[in-house]
């Protein structure tokens, strides 16, 4: 059906579960246990039942339940690892970049898919060697970041101009 739909649902659940102040060890423990269970169930189902029913791992577009269990477990454990890293390491440029991407994920996602969609039309899919594909991926990330950055700047200028005109009464009638 739509197995990928589990990921937005998981995000909605995690929004409620993840403690905002890092003090709720019980919720963090539940997430850790669930992550380990899903991760292990995914690995076991892939290893033990690679070609049986719902656990067929298929291909990129038709992954079975085992792959999705594995990915969900990995996501849960990865999020806990990231929370730990943020607590242990001081704020730095890498964190600033990741926080920017996090705040602007929707515009970056849209820009990437527009670039990728047009790229597939121009280059055709699966025609790049690994080196060129990696280079293209890095360029798409950089371009998406740049567009999101300038989009944010333009939005900030427009918002500031609009709020200034409201405060000063300089709005032009339309």
- Indicate the low-confidence ranges by residue numbers: none
Shape: extended
Q: Helices and strands, in N-to-C order? A: HHHHHH
In helices, the fraction of residues equals: over 70%
Distance between the termini: 49 Å
Biggest sheet overview:
none
For the secondary structure, the number of strands is 0
How many distinct helices? 6
Average pLDDT rating: 82
Report the structural category.
mainly alpha
Q: Indicate the radius of gyration in whole angstroms.
A: 22 Å
Write the layout of secondary structure elements.
Elements (H helix, E strand, L loop, with lengths): L5 H12 L7 H24 L16 H24 L4 H11 L1 H19 L6 H39 L6
Helix pairs in contact: 2-3, 5-6
Give an overview in words.
The chain is mainly alpha-helical. Helices cover 74% and strands 0% of the residues. The chain contains 6 helices and no strands. The N and C termini lie far apart (49 Å). The mean pLDDT is 82.
